[in-house]
Design goal:
The structure holds 2 protein chains of 2 kinds. By secondary structure, chain A is an alpha/beta fold. Chain A is built from 19 helices and 12 strands. Chain A has 2 domains: about 140 residues, Periplasmic binding protein-like II (D-Maltodextrin-Binding Protein, domain 2, 3-Layer(aba) Sandwich); about 160 residues, Periplasmic binding protein-like II (D-Maltodextrin-Binding Protein, domain 2). Chain A is about 50% helix and about 15% strand. A 4-stranded mixed sheet of chain A has the order 2-1-3-10. In chain A, strands 6-7-5-8 form a 4-stranded mixed sheet. In chain A, strands 4-11 form a two-stranded antiparallel sheet. Chain B is mainly α. Helices cover about 80% and strands about 0% of the residues of chain B. Chain B has 14 helices and no strands. Classes of the chains: A alpha/beta, B mainly alpha. Chains A and B meet through helix 1, strand 2, helix 9 and helix 19 of A and helix 4, helix 6 and helix 13 of B.
Chain lengths: ~350, ~290
Amino acid sequence: MTRRAIAVIFLALTALSPAGVFAKSELLNVSYDPTRELYQDFNKAFAKQWKQRTSQDLVVKQSHGGSGKQARAVIDGLDADVVTLALAYDIDEIYNKAKLIPRDWQKRLPGNSSPYTSTIVFLVRKGNPKKIRDWDDLVRPGVKVITPNPKTSGGARWNYLAAWAYALKQKGGSDAKAKEFVAKLYRNVPVLDSGARGSTTTFVQRGQGDVLVAWENEAFLAVNELGKDRFEIVVPSLSILAEPPVTLVDKVADRKGTRKLAEEYLKYLYSPEGQEIVARHFYRPYDKKVAAKYARQFPALRLVTIDDTFGGWAKAQKAHFSDGGAFDQIYGGARCLAEWGLIGLIGPIGPIGLM
Amino acid sequence: MHATTTSRASKVSEPAAVRWLLISVALAFLALFLLLPLAAVFAQAFDKGWEAYLAALHEPDTLSAIWLTLLTATACVPVNLFFGIVAAWAIAKFSFPGKSLLITLIDLPFSVSPVVSGLIYVLIFGLQGWLGPWLQAHGIRIIFAVPGIVLATIFVTFPFVARELIPLMESQGRDEEEAALTLGASGLQTFFRVTFPNIKWGVLYGVILCNARAMGEFGAVSVVSGHVRGSTNTIPLQVEILYNEYSYAAAFAVASLLALLALVTLAIKTLAEWKIQQGLSINENER
């Protein structure tokens, strides 16, 4: 009986590690929330062409979650060969907190290391019952806005900054007025999910809220996956150019001996094939030719950049999303204890409680 | 104790109408909050038919999640079984200083949020934690790998067996063990011939609860898993991923496995409870 139990455990263990037996190359891409479908396709394409070129079998593993949370996991030791996150600041943190990458990581690949860009748009229910046309409509009383938590989600930070930029660029706009505008907007937010995908399911599946502030690609995906007869996309007059960057995680790749492979993986994102896949998943491609081919798919709108309007991510992060920053002041102490804020508070106390 | 409650209940009873009212309220409550959601899980799971259901379970990432869950439970349950019996034996049959402190410590995982349970391991084994750099230098992976998931699950589930056995063993007292010892049995003989037969149904009950929680744990595992598809996702994490990817039928198909586990757990639990009560009333009658 016990011998059989041991045999069962042993079998389970060997069955679990086929990768070790056949020595396949393996790559881990730690990414943010809405890129699941994109990288599922892209990984297949890359593994195929890698096999053709080198006749090596390759498995690319994926992990997805809120961008800030994912960066935190890499800092805490998740063995990512490459990270593909929602914004540069989260990757900066991997340098600041763990020194796994060089400081100038963002200069290593074209377009600020962003092989694709996106922007922030609105998703509303079919027929647009609340008549939502632009950012002004989001602060109207009685409109329920769904957006994730800027403390954990990259997309949520772009959402927040897009709203801020809109208010700032209005006639007589100032930082004080923008803050008031964004504060009013967040008063209309009933729930903050930890990642962009969580917010999307809250809006589309659980039927909460009147408008979802979302990545353009996420909005397109929701409409295509769940039916054009249920949702429509509303493009605001002004939004932000979101640049989700990618990088090799040098220390991890060197330790695992995957640097070459990981570099090829990222390079393939910029190749015409990679860019086609990117565009098919509704990300705006970096490559001009592919961008022109898919131009009809993407609405034209006025886009501000993080560098011009907010002086770069480091500055924006400090002013808006750090502890006690503008977002905390806006959202109020009690309500922003969501997820990591709360964990940050209890985390250090936990082990003390144990003693 | 149980026998006295029953006899009192038969002497002093409510009118039939009140009894039926209470029973139907309880049943309606159960139907609304337990059976309906359970039925909904299966209805959603079979939304696209048998074939889609089986295909969803055959998906490589899902299979790996099932394997990992089984492996985690296989690693956790024996550890907690051993620990639980040892702790319960020590607490119920002996008196020693610090006994109540030990009982409190065993209950700790019940009172700590699972998220915090997971974070404890991140703080200890994470790259920025106490042991992280040393572990990495020696090529040992704990967190964001199978060992971390097993550790977090052991922590969350370790009260189950002990908590189940302590009251049972205390109610049985230590007369039989003392008799065995005076008749010349060794400690181990006493345990296997006298103590264990008395508590075997309690052990089963504890194991089954421990197993159910080990397979179903979400919070603590979510923190230490790293969510790498096909390697560090357990069944509950896989359900969340599938749900978030708009694969609702697949998500519920995988969730139905956990629901089935719950049903099996419930059946075995009822059997064990019945056997325990039987054992106790036999004891009572003998006295």
